[in-house]
């Protein structure tokens, strides 16, 4: 009996050792695990993992860039075995590059995605099978319902918005005063009058980087917000149903009003030869009184330039006198996870850490984010946008038009309007017809 017991005991010790060894081995195979928000609290495994992140945009002009500098460093502190490689490309280059990589099955683990039906939008990326379902992330209820909806397709969330972005007019208060403009214009006629005063004073009223053709959207959508949508906020839903057309007189009027700014010399000369970065530099150097741009470009447009002046920001008042101004405001781009990535779960863990509401990474994101936050209880980050935010809160706000168009319609609009800027005999009606034809062509196959 003793020998049997001794043999059984020995066998049990052997089995226990195997179990322990097995447990140790499986633990070391994990690349990283979630844990507390304190740095270095991830799985101590030394197995190296590289996560790639691609976004659109340019490096911050001042200080550290959140995506390029801060995020990789803080992810490394949280997950010591993880190297986060991040990159930014201008919008058009970004889309071409990422689409090509995704189609080849070699896309980044985390990439920038836009809301709704925008080019590289949530609907587009979900239908193509490129974006992973993020609905089960633990912080999702801390993101506003509208932002979740704008990043959804068939009830599932595919992107985490960086916030809400406004289109508006950045302006130089000292140049306004020099031209005798004592208050911010509140309707289209007073805006045109302000532009004329600036021009008469020898000041370029508006600088635009139309060489980067998407800048054309920055003025067009603001005007449309005040011309097309008031009284018919479901215009695009009707457009999709075939009940409205982009040749509608309201769209022709929108294009005509934007053309007027170029016809009267209120936009910088040769804007088709000026890129977005150069346009921002001309503004910060005090070479133009205004720039149409978005909240996402805060750092570039508030950077220190050759001139020292006070900035302001207001929605472009394309409304008739006596009518309220509508602001062009929409859910911004944000983070998506590549559904074909080998590191989907780890990419999700990084997003969990980023949006946990308390981590050093979350705090850095809040501090550097130029967009108006859609995360619960995060206050307005920049006083520059305070007045515009008050307009937004009234409900007089319209999303960016292209978010309800198939990818390619905005490109057609930009191409045809560029002909107007370039001096061709293209008319607003021509632009509208081209937009409508492209919409119908693409919607048919949507």
Account of the protein in words:
- The radius of gyration is 26 Å and the shape is globular.
- By secondary structure, it is of the alpha/beta class.
- The strands form 3 sheets. Strands 7, 8, 9, 10, 11 and 13 form a 6-stranded mixed sheet that branches. It has a 5-stranded mixed sheet with strand order 2-1-3-12-6.
- The protein contains 17 helices and 13 strands.
- The model is unreliable at 1-42 (pLDDT under 50).
- The longest helix is centred in the N-terminal third of the chain and has 27 residues, at 2-28.
Question: Summarize this, please?
Answer:
With 446 residues, the chain is α/β, with parallel strands linked by helices. It is 42% helix and 13% strand.
Whole-number tally of structural domains: 2
Largest sheet, described in full? 6 strands, mixed
Principal-axes geometry comes out as globular
Q: How many helical stretches?
A: 17
Helix content: 40-55%
User: Assembly type of the shown chains?
Assistant: single chain
Alpha-carbon distance between the termini? Answer: 79 Å
Q: What is the mean pLDDT?
A: 90
The CATH topology of the largest domain, please?
A: D-Maltodextrin-Binding Protein, domain 2
Structural class: alpha/beta
> H/E series, N to C?
HEHEHEHHEEEEHHEHHHHEHEEEHHHEHH
Fourth CATH level, the homologous superfamily of the largest domain: Periplasmic binding protein-like II
CATH architecture classification of the largest domain: 3-Layer(aba) Sandwich
Question: How much of the sequence is in beta strands?
Answer: 5-15%
Give unreliable regions as ranges.
Answer: 1-42
Level-1 CATH class name of the largest domain: Alpha Beta
DSSP strand tally: 13
Cα gyration radius (Å): 26 Å
């Amino acid at each position: 009996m003793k020998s049997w017991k001794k043999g059984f005991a020995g066998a049990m010790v052997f089995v226990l050792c195997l179990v322990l060894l097995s447990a140790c081995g499986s633990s070391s195979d994990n690349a990283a695990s979630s844990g507390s928000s304190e740095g270095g609290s991830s799985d101590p495994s030394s197995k190296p993992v590289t996560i790639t992140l691609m976004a659109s945009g340019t490096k911050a002009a001042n200080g550290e860039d959140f995506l390029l500098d801060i995020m990789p460093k803080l992810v490394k502190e949280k997950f010591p075995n993880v190297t986060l490689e991040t990159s930014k490309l201008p919008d058009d280059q970004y889309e071409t590059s990422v689409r090509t990589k995704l189609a080849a099955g070699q896309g980044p683990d985390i990439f920038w995605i836009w809301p709704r039906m925008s080019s590289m939008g949530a609907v587009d990326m979900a239908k193509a099978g490129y974006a992973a379902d993020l609905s089960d992330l633990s912080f999702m209820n801390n993101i506003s319902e509208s932002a979740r909806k704008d990043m959804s397709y068939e009830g599932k969330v595919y992107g985490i918005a960086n916030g809400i972005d406004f289109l508006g007019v950045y302006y130089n208060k000292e140049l306004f005063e020099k031209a005798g403009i004592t208050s911010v214009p509140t309707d289209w006629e007073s805006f045109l009058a302000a532009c004329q005063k600036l021009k008469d004073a020898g000041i370029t009223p508006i600088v635009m980087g139309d060489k980067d053709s998407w800048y054309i959207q920055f003025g067009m959508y603001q005007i449309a917000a005040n011309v097309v949508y008031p009284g018919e906020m479901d215009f695009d839903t009707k457009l999709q149903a075939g009940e409205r057309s982009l040749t509608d007189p309201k769209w022709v009027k929108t294009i005509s009003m934007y053309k007027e700014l170029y016809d009267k010399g209120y936009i910088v000369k040769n804007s088709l030869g000026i890129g977005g970065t150069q346009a921002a530099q001309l503004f910060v150097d005090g070479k133009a009184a205004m720039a149409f741009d978005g909240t996402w470009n805060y750092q570039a447009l508030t950077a220190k330039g050759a001139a020292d002046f006070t900035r302001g920001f207001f929605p472009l008042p394309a409304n008739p006198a006596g009518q309220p101004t509508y602001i062009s405001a929409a859910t911004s781009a944000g983070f998506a996870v590549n559904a074909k990535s080998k590191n989907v779960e780890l990419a999700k863990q990084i997003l969990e850490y980023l949006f946990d509401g308390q981590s050093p990474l979350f705090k850095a994101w809040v501090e550097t984010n130029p967009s108006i936050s859609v995360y619960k209880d995060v206050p307005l980050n920049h006083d520059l946008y305070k007045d515009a935010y008050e307009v937004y809160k009234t409900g007089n706000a319209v999303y960016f038009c292209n978010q309800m168009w198939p990818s390619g319609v905005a490109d057609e609009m930009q191409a045809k309007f560029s002909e107007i800027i370039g001096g061709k005999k293209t008319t607003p009606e021509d632009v509208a017809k081209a937009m409508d034809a492209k919409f119908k062509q693409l919607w048919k196959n949507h």
